[in-house]
Amino acid sequence: MNEFLTQEKSIYLQISEMIENDILRDIILEEEKVPSTNELAKMYAINPATAAKGVNILVDRDVLYKKRGIGMFVATGAKEKIKCCRQEEFYSNYIKKLLEEAESIGISKEEVIRMIRENH
Predict the structure, then answer these.
(1) Crossing angle for the helix pair 48-60 and 37-44, nearest 10 degrees?
(2) CB 33 within 8 A of CB 72
(3) CA atoms of 103 and 10, how far apart (whole Å)
(4) Which of 64, 79, 54, 2 is nearest to 33 (CA)?
(5) pTM (2 decimals)?
(6) Residue 110 and residue 52: Cα distance in Å, rounded?
(7) Which of 16, 19, 30, 94 has the fewest CB atoms within 10 Å distance of its CB?
(8) Region at 78 (left for phi over 0; alpha for psi -120 to 50; beta for the rest)
(9) Nearest-angstrom CA–CA distance, 96 and 103
(10) Are 81 and 67 in contact (CB under 8 A)?
(11) DSSP 27-92
């Protein structure tokens, strides 16, 4: 977790994304312990409640789970769950909007595909 926090979005969302990124990159593996909220708070000089809010997002998504008295761990299947969610977001945020804009200016899906292939 060597990323830096920015002003672009809420800190707790950035904390959850950083943990997800570390899971995707195999820096934190499934069934491995994640840093505690106090460790995260110390690392990023933030309030432990803010760190906890970021961690709890991942608990709610079944990416992390708590072992009582031990800490938070990455759930089995978490990496695949994150990938699927990010792919859906990628489609919604980029591909869908790209195709809508292309259609509005008279570019077919086939032409968009051709453009992508030629510039890749």
Answers:
(1) 130
(2) yes
(3) 34
(4) 64
(5) 0.81
(6) 46
(7) 94
(8) alpha
(9) 11
(10) no
(11) SS-TTPBPPPHHHHHHHHT--HHHHHHHHHHHHHTTSEEEETTTEEEEPTTHHHHHHHHHHHHHII
Dihedral-angle region of residue 46 (phi above 0 means left; psi in -120 to 50 means alpha; beta otherwise): beta
Below-70 pLDDT ranges, the chain: 1-6, 120
pLDDT in the model for residue 8: 72
Q: Which two tokens stand for residue 92?
A: 């919604």
Instruction: Please give the structure tokens belonging to residue 54.
Output: 């970021």
Q: What is the pLDDT of residue 106?
A: 96
d(CA 61, CA 4): 23
Distance, in Å, from the CA atom of 54 to the CA atom of 13, rounded to the nearest integer, reads 6
